[in-house]
UniProtKB/TrEMBL annotation:
InterPro entries: AAA_16, P-loop_NTPase. It comes from Nocardioides deserti. PANTHER family: ATPASE DOMAIN-CONTAINING PROTEIN, DNA-BINDING PROTEIN-RELATED. Transmembrane segments: none annotated. The keyword Repressor does not apply. Residues 1-23 are annotated as: Disordered. Keywords: ATP-binding, Nucleotide-binding. This is ATP-binding protein. GO terms for molecular function: ATP binding. Residues 18-208 form the Orc1-like AAA ATPase domain. The keyword Thylakoid does not apply. It holds the Pfam family AAA_16.
């Protein structure tokens, strides 16, 4: 098969040629945009799921929908070692630029830009270093607005003003936050508080977050009303019909078909996880001689796909861990080997027992893995891998 015509896209955050299985979320977000722009009450949205299930792809697709409706949009990726104040300023600046050129009142635009500058200047030069972004230079910073230093109050005032600017045009502002679970707890509470006030005002602004499975728990811990503030969407692996669609539709566009047995084997190997669907699809395409792609082609390509995943998807994450953290993950994998948990959550007490250690002595390793995004704790006393099939990978080492 011609590798140049290969339609599959197993890249980080790359939109596949066929975004299968996400129609409901896309349709619901269209409704959200329409309702918010019309001044009707609606919740923001939070996407959660394991790595490799397509959260970032879906987040970008939702942003594209907002852009098509002429909304102002901006996106940030949260990091555990960085405040969100500057990234939010950068994202809001991008959103304002998208609507400002259509506004008929330049003084109004400058006023909002001045508030944005005042908000951004509450940060230190160290916070802004390396971001490649500076606040608006052609307007003076507004005094007494979004510059208190209290993040929740400043976010509320900033969001209120930029939403009002977009509302003048009959549209809104959408801020998209990837890796939302990495926002520090106090700042996450401030963001939730600002969103809560904005929703009560009926202002046309939404925040759409994406993160690991424990993100809803983190939000609930930050503010008790967070469970009612957002619409929570669990992004999971694709059901069989949707996985087949993700393989078949792009291939059909290139005049290529799959035999049913080949699709059966592909689904067995990938479990329908979107990243694996794309990764195996790409390698199988390159290995196949012609159409239709058969089960023998899948058998030939599977070791190549597994080797590629072992280096790039699994291996890179494994190498980030310390020796003690690797021991902890290996114990988790061993405990999932019997199929009872299927690499799902395991009790931290069982990990300690398996390693013949006291639970307290393993806390640094567990906390380090959580900070690195390799495991998560969805509920007290248990941990699970953030990456599907990671236990299988460790057991194969």
């Amino acid at each position: 098969m011609d590798p140049i015509r290969n339609p599959y896209a197993p890249g980080a955050g790359q939109r596949p040629p066929e975004l299968a299985g996400r129609d409901r979320e896309l349709e619901q977000f269209d409704i959200t945009l329409e309702r918010v722009a019309a001044g009707r009450p609606e919740r923001s949205m939070v996407l959660s799921g394991l790595r490799g299930v397509g959260k970032t792809v879906l987040l970008n697709a939702l942003r594209s929908q907002a852009v098509k409706r002429a909304w102002g949009t901006g996106k940030i990726e949260a990091r555990p070692d960085r405040s969100i104040r500057v990234p939010v300023a950068q994202a809001v600046h991008a959103a304002v630029r998208e609507v400002a050129h259509r506004h008929r009142d330049p003084d109004r635009v400058d006023q909002v830009a001045g508030v944005l500058k005042a908000y951004a200047l509450r940060t230190t030069l160290a916070d802004r270093k390396g971001l490649g972004w500076v606040p608006p230079l052609d307007v003076p910073a507004t005094k007494g607005r979004a510059d208190s230093g209290d993040l929740e109050l400043d976010l509320l005032e900033l969001f209120t003003d930029v939403a009002s600017l977009a509302g003048d045009l009959g549209v809104g502002i959408a801020v998209f936050v990837d890796e939302m679970q990495d926002i520090e707890a106090g700042e996450l509470a401030a963001l939730c508080g600002a969103c809560h006030e904005i929703s009560q005002q009926g202002a046309p602004l939404v925040v759409v977050g994406a993160g690991l499975p424990h993100l809803p728990v983190a939000l609930a811990a930050s503010r008790s009303y967070s469970e009612r503030l957002f619409r929570y969407v669990s992004v999971d692996r694709l059901p069989r019909e949707m996985a087949d669609r993700a393989w078949r539709v792009p291939a059909a566009d290139e005049g290529v078909e799959f035999e049913q047995e080949a699709l059966d084997e592909l689904y067995r190997l990938t479990d329908g996880y979107p990243y694996f669907v794309q990764a195996y699809g790409k390698v199988v395409w390159d290995a196949a001689v012609g159409s239709p792609i058969g089960v023998d082609d899948v058998a030939e390509a599977a070791p190549l796909a597994e080797a590629e995943l072992a280096i790039g998807f699994f291996g890179a994450r494994y190498e980030r861990a310390t020796p003690a953290e690797r021991d902890y993950m290996t114990a988790m994998a061993d405990l999932g080997a019997d199929g009872a948990t299927g690499d799902g959550p395991v009790a931290t007490a069982e990990v300690a027992r398996h390693l013949d250690r006291k639970p307290q002595s393993l806390s640094p390793a567990r906390d380090g893995l959580i900070k690195k995004g390799l495991v998560y704790s969805g509920e007290r006393g248990s941990v699970a891998f953030t990456v599907p099939h990671f236990g299988r990978f460790l057991r194969a080492r």
